Amino acid sequence: MTLKECYEAIGGDYEEVIGRLRSERLVQKFTIKFMDDKSLELLQESLKTENYEEAFRAAHTIKGICQNLSFNRLLASSSALTEALREGGSPEALGLVEQVIADYEQTISAIKAFQSSL
Asked: Would the N or C end of the chain have less CB density within 10 A of its end CB?
């Protein structure tokens, strides 16, 4: 799997990220490094303990990383969750978490497939 194919699998914008970072090597480095991010774990734990302020920060972090790396599918779901959590733990926010988790897992799966082809 090429990096471009990985981006297609995750609903990302390969051309946009190359335009931003100017180097496929940098994009590859930060894409693989994304797997080390613990924001999803923090989001899930914060929601379990009803710490909505911390959950907001975790969702916002995911959103920011995805925006920088042009992971557009995960960006869309994490943006919606971030906005819903801005006001606290609304039922709407809690309903959006499942989509973020699904998009996150799909992103990680594609990155692992890409990494294994290196």
From this structure: C
Q: How far apart are CA 22 and CA 20, in angstroms?
A: 6
Work out the number of other CB atoms within 10 angstroms of the CB of residue 100: 24
Place of tokens 């989001």: 43
Count CB-CB contacts under 10 A for residue 12: 25
Q: How many residues belong to the chain?
A: 118
Say if residue 40 is exposed, middle or buried (CB neighbours under 10 Å; 0-12, 13-18, 19+).
Answer: buried
Per-residue pLDDT reduced to its tens digit, 35-80: 999 999 999 999 999 999 999 999 999 999 999 999 999 999 999 9
- Using alpha carbons, select from 55, 101, 57, 53 the residue that is nearest to residue 77: 101
